[in-house]
Amino acid sequence: MQPELENKFLSDFEANQNIVHKVCRIYTTNQDAHNDLFQEIAIQLWKNYSKFRGDAKFSTWMYRVALNTAISLYRKSTRTVRTQDISDIAFKIESKEYDDTEELQLKALYVAIRTLNDIDKALIFLYLEDKPYKEIAETLGISEVNARVKMNRAKDKLRKILNP
Amino acid sequence: MDLSQYKQAWKNQPEETYKVSAAEIYKMTQKRSTSFVKWIFIIGILEFVILNSLYLFVDMDEANKQYEEAGIKGFVFYMELFAYAVAIYFLIRFYLNYKNISSGESTKKLMSDILKTRKTVKHYVLFNLFLMFIVICVVGTTVMKQQSTKIPEDKVVILMIVTVVIGLIVLTLVWLFYQLLYGILLRKLNRNYKELTKLDKLN
What ipTM did this prediction achieve? Predict the structure, then answer.
């Protein structure tokens, strides 16, 4: 790869890395696994960068490769945790000046999402990231109608877990 | 509580405190992938190698002598030739399918491409078992016919049937065992693929 392309890739990745961190937090339950998945996503992004055409946004393509890696390529099975395991939540966030209620909500949300299956995790993640249905359907390779139906079911599942 | 409140909390979540630097990202990209697809490729290649080296465990000189005596040396030779041609065909297809796998595709396409690659090997194994069955039947019955002077004629037919049935049972067991391994290897992928395509038929 040409050096300027390489640099562009690295700076784009660095700027958008939060997307990858969020995917890792959803699909793994400890820091080691998080780092492991992060590395594999980096490898996959790099390997595919030459095929990435500028007609899509870098971040859009990043969502796709990151989710694909977590769902289909990551070698370790993404074990689901029970809702009670709230204490071993493994994400490091700065909590200063951060609303307590929201922090609790966020933690509960992560715990709830982790109990979903791999596909529902992806759907909910894309919903939380405010992605339009067209993009969700394209990312997953299903029809828009199908994406809507699936999303409603995934949301129902999530609601039940959050408000039993 | 409504999901939109959680969504707000999600949006307001602080960024990861540990930022990975561009230099670290570069280092990561130079590491070897541990992806599932790589294992699919390695295991697939192993299966081709194992199936094609089975004859190493057989004393071929001895076997050839027996085939010659039974008058089926030509049959065995052409069968082998055919088997190699088919192996090459499957290997090429396996490699092309593997090359086609890209994590930049949609999730559904990626999963179906991985499953397709695996299926090539599965079909190859199935083909080999079928070929083994034919060889067992032909060699078994010819040898028995040859020996028929020593064995009473009414028993020859029974022995032939027994040979075929035993061959069939052994190969079915091998196939079931293989299917089990195949199922374990692809369990997660199959489950996710089923989950993703569940509603496709309805729409």
Answer: 0.83
